[in-house]
Amino acid sequence: MARTERYAGFAKAVARVCGRPVVFTVAVGVIAVWILTGPIFGFSDTWQLVINTGTTIITFLMVFLIQNTQNRDTQAIQIKLDELIRATQGAHNALLDLEELDDRELEAFRKRYEKLAATARRQRDSGGGDTDTPDA
User: Fold this and answer.
1) Which of 15, 48, 85, 98 could make a disulfide contact with 69, Cβ separation 3.0–4.6 Å?
2) Do 95 and 85 contact (CB within 8 A), yes or no?
3) What are the residue boundaries of the structural domains of the chain, listed by start?
4) What pTM was estimated for this model as a whole?
5) d(Cα 64, Cα 71) in Å, to the nearest integer?
């Protein structure tokens, strides 16, 4: 198994486990124990440093794991949407890779669809329908 596949599997497993209520409960428990030990350690700088360091390290690592999982999910959704566009008769295949376009090109598509929406609302408000199919 390649290193990236192992990492992706690990990231997915960690994200799945960390998203469970029991993990949240454990995290709240750790914070509660930390708070309760405050008087024992005199609310010292070291006492504060322990929680700050621990949470910073965990947050730092989780950002990368969550980002990996989010990227994979986004890619999967994008592929599914691309397949729906591809399989829909009359759909514009030029929309298949919009995420790869630069901001100027995306803005042009967005404006085009805003115009279509405004036209459909006007038609609906004047008693017409607001459904349509793309030009074949």
Assistant:
1) 15
2) yes
3) 3-96, 101-128
4) 0.66
5) 10
pLDDT tens digits, one per residue of 21-77: 999 999 999 999 999 999 999 999 999 999 999 999 999 999 999 999 999 999 999
Q: Minimal CA–CA distance to 119: which of 131, 109, 110, 107?
A: 131
Terminal Cα-to-Cα distance of the chain (whole angstroms):
45
Query: Quick check: 18 and 62 in contact, CB under 8 A?
Result: yes
Annotate 85-125 with DSSP letters as a single string: HHHSTT--GGGTTGGGS-HHHHHHHHHHHHHHHHHHHHHHH
* Token pair recorded at residue 25: 């409960």
The per-residue pLDDT for 49 is 96
